[in-house]
Amino acid sequence: MRAALLALWLAVLALPAAAASDLAADREHLAQITRRAFDEPAAMLAELERRWPRTAEPAREVAWLYARGRVLLAGNQIEAADAVALKLAGLEGGADHGWLLRALTQERAGKPAGMLAARALEGLGRRCPAGDEVHAVRSPGCDFRAAADALRLLQREQAGQGALVEAEGSVRRGLALARAGGDRHLASLFMAQLAVLLQAQDDQDAARAEIRAALAEAQGDALASARVRNAEAVVERRAGERQAARAALESALVLAEQARAPHLAAQLRANLVDAYMYLGLYREALNAGRLALPVLQRFRDRTYERALHHNLAVTHIRLRQLDAARQELARVAEFQLDPSDLVPRAGELRELGDTWADAGQHREALAAYCGERELSARINERNRASALEELRRKYDTAAKQRDLALLARDGQLKDQQLSNRRLLQQLGLAVGVLLLLSIVLVGATLLRMRRAQARLTANQQLLRTQSERDPLTDLSNRRHFLAVMDARSHELCAEGFRGALMMIDIDHFKHVNDRHGHAAGDAVLVEVGRRIRAAVRDTDLVVRWGGEEFLVFAPELPGDDLAQMAARVLNGIGGTPVATAEGPLRVTASLGFASFPLGGRGSAQLRLHWEQAVNWADMVLYQAKAEGRNRAIGIAAVQAPDADTLAAILQDFDAACQHGQVRLVALTGPSA
Q1: Minimal CA–CA distance to 604: which of 565, 574, 639, 655?
Q2: How far does CA 596 lie from the centroid of its chain?
Q3: Which strand ranges, in their side-by-side order, compose the sheet holding 631-638?
Q4: pTM higher than the cut 0.85
Q5: Per-residue pLDDT tens over the stretch 388-429
Q6: Number of H helices, E strands in the chain
C-alpha cells in the first residue's frame, strides 16, 4: 500500500516537469514553422492545422495561438491575425502575447509598433529578466523567443529614430536570450543586427568581427547564413565598400535559393538593385528589380516594395529615363510612411535630390531637398526633445541627491542636539564644551554645504555650456542658437527678427564620406567651420546647424555688407583644398543669405519670427544648390506690402522671382 502511494506521489510530482518538457518541445517546433512561414505561409498554416493539439493547458494554447497569428501575418491575413490577438488577450497568461501580436500586425501594416512592443515586453521581460537569462529560460513562464520578437520590434523603432545606443541595448538583450535558449538561428540574426548598429556608430572593426562571429554561429543553416550575408552587405555599403557589398548580396542570394526561400530571395534582389546602381550596372539593376517586384507583390511585402520602387526611380534617372522614374516615384508616394523610418527616408530624399540635380532637373531636385529638410526638422525636433528630457532627468536626480544629503545632515544635527541635551542634564561643564563643539560642527557643515552648492552650480553651468557646443567643430550648435533667440524674445515680439542670416551647405559632402571615409569627412567639417569663423566678424554667431550645414547670424548687418561677407565665406571655403589623411580635397559650398527686415517698399514694417527668417535663408540656399552649387544666392529686395503676400511668395518662390516680387543677387565661388 505504501509503495503504491509513493509511486502515485512521484507521478504527481513528475507532471509539472513533463508539462514543461512538452511546452518547450512545442515552442521549438512552432519556431521552425513560423520561420518557414516567411516563404511558405499557406503550407505552414496547413501544417499548424494538421498538428493542432485537441486539448491543451493554457500555456500551450497561448504558444499555439501566437504561432498561428505569426503564420497568418506571414500570409498577410492581418484581420485574422488581429482576431487571434484578441483571443490571446482573453486567455490566462496570454495578454502579453496578444499585445506582441498586435505590435507585429502594426509592423506588417507599415504603422508604428514600438509602443505596443514595449507594453508586451514589460510583461514578457518580467518572466525573462535581464541579467538572469540562463536561469530564466529554464522556466516554462519564460517564452524567450516572444521576448526576442518584442526586442526586435523595439530596436527597429529605436534605430529608425536615431537612438542607436538604446537600440544596441535591445539587441544585446535579445542576443543573451537567444544564447541562453540555445537557439543558434536566432542568435546569429541578433549578432548580424548588432553588427549593423555598431557600423552605424562608426565602429567598423567591431561590426566586421560581429559578422564573422554570426556566420560561424549560422554555419550549416542556409537561411540564417543568407540573412547574415545581407547584414554584411549593409555594413560594407555604409563603409563605402560597394564591391564587397555586392559580393555579400550575391552570396546571400545563392544561399536563399538553396534554402528555397523565394520571399527572402526577392528581398535580396531588391537590395541588389541599390548595389548594382551605385556600381553603374544600371541594366543589371533593372533586371534584378523586375525579378524581385512580382514576388514582393505576391507576398505583399510593402516595406521592400516601396524601397524597390525608390531604387528603380534613381536608376531610371541616371539612365535619363525620366518618365519611367516619375512613374516609380508615384508608386513610392502610394505607401504610408512609418514614423520609425524617418531617418532612412530623409536619406532617400537627399539621394533623390542629388540624382535629380545631377540630371539637370532642378525643380524636382528642389522638391526633394525641401522634403528632406522637412523630415530632418522632424527628426531634429524629436532628438532635441529626447535630449532635453535626458538633461532634465539628470538635473532632477542631482537635485534629489542634494536634498537627501541635506536631510541626512539635518538628521545628524538633530541627533547631536538630543545628545547634547542629555549630557546637559548630567554634566555642567562638559555641556559647555560639547555645545562649543556643536557650534563648530554646524559652522563646518554649513560651509561644506555652501561649497557643495557652489560646485553643483558650476557643474550645471558647465553642462549647460557643453550642451550648447558642437563637440566636433567647437562651434555653437542649434540648441545655443535657440537659447539666443529665447533671450531676444522680448525684442523679437516688439520689432520682429532683425539682423542677417546666412545658411551654408557643403557641396556633395556625402561623396566625401562615401569615397574617403568618415575621418576625412570630419576633417572637412572642422576646417570648413574654421574658415567660416575666420571670414565673419567676431560679433557674429556661427552655428553648426546639423550634418554638413552651418548658419551665421550677424546682428545689424545691411545687405551690401552681407553680400561682401558671403563672398568672403564662399572664397574662404573653396579657395584652397582641405588637408586630410586621404590627401588634399577640394571642397566648395552653396550659400543662401538675407538681411532682415526684408527690403522693398512696405516690407520694413512687417514683423517676421526668427523661424520664418531661417526659412527665407533656407529657400535661397536651395536655389543656390539647384543652380549648380559653388555659389551664393542672396535676397536683394522683396516687394510685399503685407504678411500674407510674404507667405505667398515663400510658397511659390520661383514665380515670385519671375514676376519681379523678389530680386536676387548671385555670387559665384572660386573655379577649380
Answers
A1: 639
A2: 35
A3: 476-477, 541-546, 549-554, 499-506, 589-596, 631-638, 662-668
A4: no
A5: 665 665 565 455 556 556 655 665 666 676 667 777 667 766
A6: 28, 7
